[in-house]
Every structure is written in C-alpha cells, then in structure tokens.
Write a structure and sequence with these properties.
It is built from six helices and 49 strands. It is mainly β and 590 residues long. 33% of the residues are buried.
Length: 590
C-alpha cells in the first residue's frame, strides 16, 4: 500500500465532498512529511551526539595500531599506553549507552567490557584490571555463586547505563597481553566487524608519514606459484624512496611484489600499521589495499595476505601484493591480473608504490623493473606430494596417520614428510614445514609404544618448538593418540607425568598482604586452541577466584576482606591437562 493510499484509508467519515477530501489529503501529507522530517532530524542529532571520544584521560599514545599484522590475524583495535606504565588508569566510556556484556577469561581479552551505543555501534575495552565498583560487585556475586573464575555475562539496557566519559574500569594486563595497556575496539552494527577507531572519534596528532622497510620481488610461474624471491633494500631520498640504481633487473617472466612498511605516530619507539597502499605500473593502477574494517569471520585469512614464511623465519611482516587463490579478504578495491607485473627485456616498467596512514600522511617508492637477458634457474622443489589448492590430503604409514581437510591451504603446496628416530628410540615426525600456514585443523594419530612403563593416559602429542615442547593433548583411541593442530612442523609423542611447579612469590606471612601471587610452571606449554593448567583455591574450604597472567605465568589471589580476615588455611591445588597434581598449603594467622 502506497503513502497516498494509506492516508486515504484514514479519511474521517465527515469529509464527504471532493474539496474536503483534497484539503484533508494535502494537510495530512504535509503533517506526515513534517513528522518524518522531525524524526530524521532527531536521528541525525542522535548520531551527531554519539561522536565517540577517548577511552582514557591522559594524552593518547598508540602502542598498537588498527590493521597491524599480528599472528594469524589483523589487529582489530588500537592499543593505548598507560600513563605510568602500571595498572590502574581510569577507563572511560567513549560514548553514551549501556554496558551490554562483561567477560572474564584467562586468555584473549582477559577482563573486558562491551558498551552498546544508541546508533548501533559497540565499543570494547579489554585487558582491564577491574570493572567499576557496582559492576565488579555484581560480577563477583555471580562468580562466587557459581564457583567460576571465567564468566561471560550479558546485560539489559537498564542494568548498567553509562554516559560519555564515565569511568567503567581500570587499565591492566589481564588475558593475553604484553604489558599494561588498553585494547580498544569500535564495532559496527553487526558486532562482528571491527572499525578503525582513528576514523571513529579517536583523535591522534600525527604528521609523520609511514616508512618503507623492505621490498621483495617474487618470481612466479603461470599458476602464481613462487619460483624464487629477491629482496631489495629501499633507499630514502628526501621524502620518497627508491632502489639502488633506480632499475631492477630480474630473470623472470612475471613478478609479484612484497612490501614491508610501518607507521610512526610520534617520536617514540612504537610503530603501527598502514591504512592503505596502491601500486601503479606505467601510470596504471594495478593493486590497492585498504583496511578500515576487519571482519572477524575472515580475519585468519591474514595468513594468505602475509608472506608467512618470512614471518616465521625472521618475524618481519611483508604485505604480499598479489592475490593467491585462497585469499578471501575484501581489502583490495583494485586488483588487475591478480597484482602481477609482466616483464619485458625491451622496456623497463615504472613502478610507484604509495602507502598512507589513517591521518592521510603519504609516502612513495619509485623504481623501474625490467626482465634480465638471462633467466634465473629456480631452485629445485623437494617434495613427496603435490597438494593442489582446494584439495584435502591424508597420509598413513606404520605408526602415524594425519589428515588435512580441503580449504586448509591457501595455495598449491609441495608437501614434505619425513621421520627420524633418536638413540633412545623416540621418533619425531616432520609434517611439512612451519613456514606454510594452515587455515583449518589437521588431525594426527600416532601409535603408542608397545613396550613402555608409561600409562596410556600420560602420553601427549607435542609440537617441537625450541627447548620447551608445546602440548596438543590428545585422546587414546584403538592404541593411538589422536590430537589436532593448526601448525605444521615437527611432532612427537611425549610422556607427561610431571606435576606443575608452584612457587610462592612472597616471603612473609600471607596474612600481612592483600594479595598472594604464585608462579605456576609446567614442563610443557599448551597450544593456542587448548588449555593445560587448571586450579582450585579455597580459604577454610570456601572457594575463591584467582587471576592468571599468561605472560608471566603468575596466578594472583585477591580474597575479599571478610574472608581473608577470618581465614586460617589457604589451599591451592593445581593440575595439568594429564591430571598431574600439585598442592600448596599455608596457615594464615594475624
């Protein structure tokens, strides 16, 4: 039904004549239009009034920027430094709304708050030390009633309303945090898309352009598979960058580019990521990259954008500026011929790379590239299996089976597998190389030794990474240990019968302190997808929570006064994923 028909249906029975109906129709339409205008004005006013502000009181110093390359993801927020370097700085609501969610978790965001705003956006405040007193008391009531350290609570709009600038918590380093800071996010109305806070109210003074740190040329075959790569050092000349000699000669038919860049916000040691990049070849735009939002459903595809092998080998982040088959990211408004540059011996091609930060500061690199007269012979590929992109793969032999699902690889992989037996009879299995990323989990089954004094439930599958193995756990099934991992590399069985070690970090009577901290260490680390350590804390038999610091491997206990002042016995029990247990008991007296 149209707008005119809707109004005609509402005509009063007294409006009988054509003149009366015409007059009523016109005045009613004017009235409705006026109401629509007022509603639109009110909505616009609300949107303007919800301009987000800063979530901290002191001058903003970014230690981490939006869209930075991080392990397995793009950074979905910004990290803001503490005023003093210690926990306790007030955290403010960036806009009016209500606290819609509060979480406490050992990993990830740690202690975090979500604030829902009237315009549909949501802001997130992570790694907090504490919530505001009323909210903290409410959350603690739930924790003590359920005996759960970790909670995920959702609130109604009228429970914890906030105004812009209201203190909602204090800064800390809970969860997976390296040092005291605030991780701050702005999310779109769908709540699974993060927006760049620097484009949504967060104001950072920045007049320093980004810098080029590295340039790579990847020689590619006709199926975009790498043949070899060459790294060239950028040379700064004034405000722009070039390469030595201006022209690059390379013995390849076609190349893709890899660019390592960082942005400096202010005169400090911190570096962040860029917001956009463009590449032109002979004045034609062939590639562009823009990251002003991150979809959490697609975020792991960062591994298809990144030069993952370089990341694993050296920790340096190179944007791979050509598209491989498994890259589903939406960050490329312009991508001609998959970003490839076809080379010629007759004419050098002019390449201009421009990078820009969220404040609009720009930097360019210019050079020419030409195919060399002699083609470079690529190194031989050493592999047992060729796994085409999009296909699954499984391997089975006398004591190991592993399967990798379709979609786990971002491109065709030339796969290697080998095994090695040590002098003590322990077998390690090299399942390809850690320089190749996995998007999905592979399943690994390793047969248990037939002659062993180790109980079956004490075996774990471990990834060998340096001196301290990383446990993937595992379940016993038909004489085999079955576990999952999203990491390629070397694996082996390990007998885990050692209990975690509890070390008190205080040297006085616990009753003389408001909190008690313990370092808890196990002989193995835990893979990111699993949890190794568990514990239970009681004061005179009454359960109390603890707070875990991943970085320091420290458990801190802060009991309320009504329990600490009355208690006489503290009991801490800790056990690992294989149920190896340790206990610490202290008599508390005043």
């Amino acid at each position: 039904m149209g707008f005119r028909q809707l109004i005609l249906c509402q005509l009063p029975f007294t409006a009988q004549s054509k003149v009366e109906r015409t007059w009523y129709l016109r005045t009613t339409m004017v009235r409705h239009l006026l109401l629509l205008f007022l509603f639109a004005s009110a909505a616009l006013s609300t949107a303007v009034s919800q301009q987000l502000g800063a979530p901290i009181q002191h001058p903003l110093v970014l230690t981490g920027g939006f869209g930075e390359l991080r392990p397995d993801h793009f950074h979905a927020g910004v990290d803001l430094r503490s005023r003093t370097g210690r926990a306790g700085d007030p955290i403010l609501a960036a806009g009016a709304g209500y606290i819609s969610r509060a979480i406490l978790q050992r990993d990830g965001y740690g202690r975090a708050l979500y604030v829902q705003h009237p315009d549909g956006r949501m802001t997130l405040y992570a790694h907090l030390t504490s919530f505001s007193p009323r909210l903290q008391a409410y959350v603690d009531t739930i924790r003590y009633a359920t005996h759960r350290e970790e909670v995920d609570l959702v609130f109604e709009p009228n429970q914890f309303p906030v105004v812009k600038g209201q203190v909602i918590g204090t800064m800390g380093k809970t969860g997976r945090a390296n040092g005291v800071h605030l991780h701050y996010e702005v999310r779109d109305q769908d709540h699974h898309t993060a927006l760049n806070p620097l484009l949504h109210g967060l104001r950072i003074k920045d007049n320093i352009p980004p810098v080029f740190q590295g340039l790579k040329l990847y020689a590619l075959d006709d199926k975009l598979l790498p043949l070899f790569e060459t790294e060239i050092a950028p040379i700064r000349r004034g405000k722009a960058y070039k390469v030595k000699g201006d022209t690059v000669l390379i013995g390849a038919w076609r190349v893709g580019l890899g660019v390592s860049v960082q942005d400096k916000i202010a005169e400090n040691r911190f570096r962040t990521g860029i917001q956009r990049m463009t590449i032109t070849v002979d004045e034609e735009l062939v590639y562009s990259f823009v990251i002003d939002r991150v979809d959490f459903h697609l975020n792991r595809y960062m591994n298809a954008h990144l030069d993952y092998g370089e990341w694993v080998r050296t920790g340096r982040g190179f944007h791979r500026c050509y598209q491989i088959p498994g890259n589903r990211l939406p960050f490329y408004p312009e991508m001609k011929k998959a970003g490839l540059i076809t080379l010629s011996q007759k004419k050098a091609k002019k390449v201009v790379i421009e990078i820009m930060d969220a404040s609009g500061n720009k930097t360019q690199m210019r050079f020419w590239i030409k195919r060399a007269s002699e083609m470079k012979e690529p190194p031989a590929r050493l592999f047992q299996y060729r796994i085409p992109f999009g296909e699954s793969f499984a391997h089975s032999d006398q004591d190991i089976r592993f399967s990798i699902p379709a979609g786990a690889f971002y491109e065709t992989v030339f796969f290697q597998f080998s095994r090695q037996e040590s002098e003590d009879g322990l077998i390690s299995y090299k399942i390809h190389t850690p320089e190749t990323p996995l998007h999905q989990f592979m399943t690994v089954s390793i047969r248990l030794p037939e002659k062993t004094d180790v109980a079956p439930e004490k075996w774990v599958g471990v990834y060998v990474d340096g001196s301290r193995p990383v446990s993937c756990g595992g379940q016993i099934k038909d004489g085999q240990l079955v576990f999952q991992s999203r990491q390629l590399g070397t694996y082996q069985l390990m007998a885990d019968s050692l209990a975690p070690v509890i070390t008190p970090l205080f040297d006085r009577n616990p009753a003389e302190s408001d909190s008690w901290s313990f370092r808890i260490q196990d002989n193995v680390l835990a893979a990111d997808h699993m949890r190794n350590l568990q514990w239970n804390i009681t004061l005179d038999g009454q359960w109390i929570p603890g707070e875990w610091s991943n970085q320091e491997e420290v458990l801190t206990i802060r009991p309320p006064d009504n329990l600490r002042n009355k208690a006489r016995t503290l009991l801490l029990e800790v056990w690992d994923e294989r149920n190896n247990r340790s206990r610490y008991t202290a008599n508390i007296h005043r």
